[in-house]
Write a structure and sequence with these properties.
The protein has about 475 residues and is mainly α. The protein contains 18 helices and no strands. It has helices at about 1-20, 25, 30-60, 60-90, 95-130, 145-175, 180-230, 245-285, 290-305, 320-325, 340-345, 350-360, 360-375, 380-390, 410-425, 440-445, 455-465, 465-475. Helix 1 (about 1-20) packs antiparallel against helix 5 (about 95-130). The radius of gyration is 39 Å and the shape is rod-shaped.
């Protein structure tokens, strides 16, 4: 469509241009002037369509825009040369007249070739983005500064050349005419206005088209960089041009991939460290590493069940659910600070011992709070881990510890862990009790609804009951009652 418009406008502009710059063309009838021009441009258009299809099928994507420009410019120049030969053979026009036609078609072809090449760049970018593909830019290319310099220079030379031809023709015409000075001035200004009316829109269109392509690149580049600055490293800038912008996009993508790799490595290191610390805490107690794996997944099951609940909107964010899953193993990290004779006592604790035992919540929270302070910035992971460590023994009715929080004053993460931890304790063997079957653990949790546990969390537990059973079975150990 765009090329059809260009060729139609070129036919009109060249017809008027011929009469403006060449007195020989001005002597032809309208049919003699239009016939060769329209025929030549129609044939050129057919060649153009076939050659464009060849470029799209056979030329590598990164060279297609360049080939479009080169082929289009060559076609217009060739058409001008053929018209020059035709007029010389048929009408015996001098070489000077033919060169004016070649110049006119070449100037039009130059601007049209640039516009079609820029359109091809946009099409390539859209295709690559839709398919998730990229081109590999060459290390050597024509930089933007040189392109702008060439475009500006050629545009100025083209305008001056055509204006010179118009003025030269008008001076010859004025010598033989009997027009008044005022009429002659108006005629000359009218012809110059026509030249500017043709040239300026082509120049402006080229600038706008290039700005559009540049904006597409900058929008994609800024989008990926903004996403990376907020921690989202899954974006890519389409590498669709064989120039410095393609190279910049390629290097941006390489940087994002590198950051993604480093982030993933840090995440794995963090997860291993967390797991190791959690296991270290559990090895000082009667619980096992399987307890960590089970409670993690219980919390995950509850979070997924509640994510569409109007009172649990934070869980709609997958990142929050992942943070809860990752931080859950640290819920008993404070047990490291409990003396062995209390932590490992093979029986029930005395009231005094139980008071000391309860401090594992604040010991863990204080340690994680100091870690937050050392980090010097808000850490969602450490915040969730601290809330879980400090609040997973709070009770919905306010009778829990360490702070006696009630209802929604208890952090959401701690409310989920409270149920997960109790359920796992119920189905696990302790020195002071046997492992309860799932049905008995279920009954105890339901009885604790709105007393020990958040009612909505209990409802989520009942809705995901089969998943709890599957988790307990998959990560069972010698201390648990396998449902």
């Amino acid at each position: 469509m765009r090329s059809t418009i260009h060729y139609s406008l070129a036919a009109i502009a060249l017809t008027i241009y011929g009469g403006q710059v060449c007195p020989f063309l001005e002597t032809l009838t309208l049919a003699q002037l239009l016939g060769p021009i329209l025929t030549m441009l129609a044939l050129q258009y057919l060649v153009h369509r076939g050659w464009q299809r060849h470029i799209e099928r056979r030329v590598p994507l990164k060279y297609q825009a360049q080939r479009v420009f080169q082929s289009e410019l060559a076609l217009f120049f060739t058409s001008g040369a053929i018209l020059m030969l035709f007029n010389r053979i048929v009408f015996d026009f001098p070489l000077e007249s033919g060169l004016k036609v070649v110049l006119g078609l070449s100037v039009l072809g130059y601007f049209i070739a640039i516009d079609l090449a820029l359109e091809r760049e946009r099409d390539i970018a859209a295709t690559l983005q839709a398919q998730g593909l990229h081109i590999e830019p060459d290390s050597e290319f024509m930089p933007l500064t040189r392109k702008v310099a060439w475009f500006a220079s050629i545009s100025v030379v083209a305008i001056l050349s055509i204006v010179f031809l118009v003025i030269n023709k008008d001076l010859d015409w004025l010598v033989d005419s009997r027009l008044t000075l005022g009429d002659a001035r108006r005629a000359i200004l009218g012809e110059l206005a026509f030249v500017m009316a043709v040239m300026l829109p082509y120049i402006i269109n080229t600038i706008v088209a290039y700005a559009r392509n540049l904006r597409l690149f900058l929008d994609a580049e800024n989008g990926v960089l903004h996403a990376a600055s907020t921690g989202r490293l899954d974006g890519q800038v389409p590498v669709s041009s064989n120039d410095e912008f393609g190279l910049m996009a390629d290097r941006t993508n390489a940087m994002v991939r590198s950051l993604r790799g480093l982030t993933e490595e840090l995440r794995k290191t963090r997860d291993v460290t967390i797991h190791s610390l959690a296991i270290l805490a559990e090895t000082r107690d009667y619980e096992t590493g399987a307890h960590i794996l089970r409670t993690q997944r219980y919390v995950q099951a509850l979070a997924e069940q509640l994510r569409d609940h109007p009172h649990f909107t934070p869980l709609r964010d997958p990142a929050v659910a992942e943070l809860l899953f990752k931080s859950a193993p640290l819920h008993d990290i404070g047990k490291i600070g409990i003396p062995d004779h209390i932590l490992l006592k093979p029986g029930r604790h005395t009231p005094e011992e139980f008071e000391i035992m309860k401090t594992h919540t604040t010991l863990g929270a204080d340690a994680l709070r100091r870690a937050e302070a050392e980090l010097g910035e808000d850490s969602s992971f450490l915040r969730h881990a601290r809330e879980i460590a400090e609040g997973h023994h709070e009770r919905w009715d306010g009778s829990g510890y360490p702070h006696g929080l009630a209802g929604t004053a208890i952090p959401l993460s701690a409310r989920l862990m409270a149920l997960a931890d109790v359920y796992d304790a119920l189905i696990s063997k302790r020195v002071y009790k046997p492992a309860f079957p799932h049905e008995q653990a279920r009954t105890i949790i339901v009885e604790g609804r709105a007393a020990h546990f958040d009612p909505d969390v209990v409802d989520a537990f009942l809705a995901s009951e089969q998943r709890f059973i599957a988790i307990a079975r998959e990560f069972a150990d010698e201390y648990t009652h396998c449902p």
